[in-house]
Amino acid sequence: FLKVLSHIDSILRSPRAPPLIYRRSKGPVQNYTKENGQECGFEHLPLTIEMWADQLMALKDLHRSLRKLSLELMPWHTANPQDNRESIRVEDLQFIVDAILEEIENKEKNSQTQSLQTLSAIVSHFQKLFDVNSLNGVYPRMNEVYTKLGEMTNAMRNLHELLELDSSAPPTVVVDTVGKLCDIINKNVTEQVQQLLGTQDIHSIINKLEEHERFFPPFQALIQDLLCLLEISNLDDILPVVQNLK
User: Fold this and answer.
1) Whole-angstrom Cα distance, residue 81 to residue 67?
2) Which residue has the higher pLDDT, 236 or 83?
3) Under the GO molecular function aspect, what terms does this record hold (predicted)?
4) How far is 175 from 244, CA to CA, in rounded Å?
5) What pLDDT digit, counting tens, does each position of 182-211 carry?
6) Do residues 93 and 63 touch, judged by C-beta distance below 8 A?
7) What phi and psi values does residue 199 have, to the nearest 5 degrees?
8) Is the pLDDT of residue 39 over 80?
9) Which residue, 65, 73, 61, is CA-closest to 99?
């Protein structure tokens, strides 16, 4: 028994042993005596061993949780037969943690590479859409597109207000409304022309225009001859001059 205690004492006094394991007893607690007569304090050793037992059980639980996390992040990794062994070492946990960290770093590198590829594809697509031949022309064309977009947005906003449309109305509704308005205006113009010419029949309008074309040139020539003959330049002076000649 004394040899066992001596061996335990040498382990506890080892530089590798945690400071918490060995401490001198305080108070009237009976200490065991080694062969050389030196006292050694083991009164708290059962509590320490119980703590170690709890930590070993927690170590297994931690190993199990890390294995679940590893399978979630790396489902292609098959379970190691040694994962079910009774004794779990800290090195085993460290190995799983290192594998997880390495996988995360690889994913970050891959995501950065994919981001660069995505950005390159976006720039190429922009060049095709807006006919940009070089990268140097991308920014000027972007500014041009932004300016044109602002002008169109303002124009659409003004049309919405003028046509008394809701701001959420799509451009197709605006175009349809403008088309209907143009139809109304054209119809009103046609009706006014018909009223002016005194007819509702398009054929009558054509006939009147043809009559005008036949009548107006000779009448215009006659008026020009009268102005030259009477030596006047104003149409209103024709009638007074003729009356004076009578």
Assistant:
1) 12
2) 236
3) gamma-tubulin binding
4) 65
5) 888 887 777 776 676 665 566 777 777 788
6) yes
7) -150, 155
8) no
9) 73
Count: domains in the chain: 1
In a domain, 212, yes or no: yes
Residue 181 in domain? no
Tokens of 155: 């124009």
Q: Are 178 and 163 in contact (CB under 8 A)?
A: yes
Mean per-residue pLDDT, 29-53: 56
CB 141 within 8 A of CB 130: yes
d(CA 177, CA 169): 11
Domain that holds residue 208: 201-245
28 assigned to some structural domain: no
In a domain, 92, yes or no: no
Measured between alpha carbons, how far is 203 from 211 in angstroms, rounded to an integer?
12
Both tokens of 111, joined, read 């995501």
- pLDDT tens for 103-146 read 888 877 776 666 777 888 888 999 999 989 988 889 899 999 99
Cα torsion 190, 195, 198, 202 to 10°: value is 10
CA angle centred on 209, ends 205 and 215, rounded to 5°: 140
Residues 6+ apart with CB under 8 A from 171: 156
pLDDT score for 8: 64
